[in-house]
Amino acid sequence: MSFYDYSIPTPKGEDFPLSSYEDKVVLVVNTATGCGFTPQYKDLEELYEAYHDQGLEILDIPCNQFANQTPEDDEAIHEFCTLHYNTQFPQMKKSDVNGENQLPLYRFLKEKQPFTGFGKSPKALAMAAMLKKIDKNYKSNPEIKWNFTKFLVNRQGEVVARFEPTESMKKVKEAVASLI
């Protein structure tokens, strides 16, 4: 299967086929409204405004699997994002990205780009230390570790990169720009 063979639910419960994004560069992000990384919405919106006309799409998939940081319903999440960050990119239904009820898309994304670490920045080291307390084996599985993990898909539907939430948005922007 390819990226384009999947669909994801909209907040209204309709299936959104990812084939709609053929020949586009897509950034898939699991988000949260009450996370320390939530300000990345500002960077994501800037990225969207800079590259949307050139073929970038951002898929915002809210998720409440990490420390209950997205307890709101889909409508309240959307209102929060548009009010605080003026987001214009599509927001999908709040969904699981790990476990038994994960979106099939996430199983595919993690298979193509498994977890390889957080890096060496102070934020990365803090995130690793926190996760080690929760799961001593966190390094050995491909699961999403936290909110704002990003997957980059090229125009051919190939998952070419995974960015952990600790990765600088500058690096994400450079990777997107290289595909535009």
Automatic annotation (TrEMBL):
Q: Name one GO biological process term.
A: cellular response to oxidative stress
Does the keyword section mention Cell cycle? no
Q: Which UniProt keywords apply?
A: Oxidoreductase, Peroxidase
Annotated active site:
35
Q: Which domain of life is it from?
A: Bacteria
Q: Output the Gene3D superfamilies linked to this UniProt entry.
A: Glutaredoxin
User: GO molecular function: any one?
Assistant: peroxidase activity
InterPro entries named in the record? Glutathione_peroxidase, GPX_AS, Thioredoxin-like_sf
CDD domains, A to Z: GSH_Peroxidase
**Stated family:** Belongs to the glutathione peroxidase family.
**Which PANTHER family does the record match to this protein?**
GLUTATHIONE PEROXIDASE
Instruction: Name it.
Output: Glutathione peroxidase
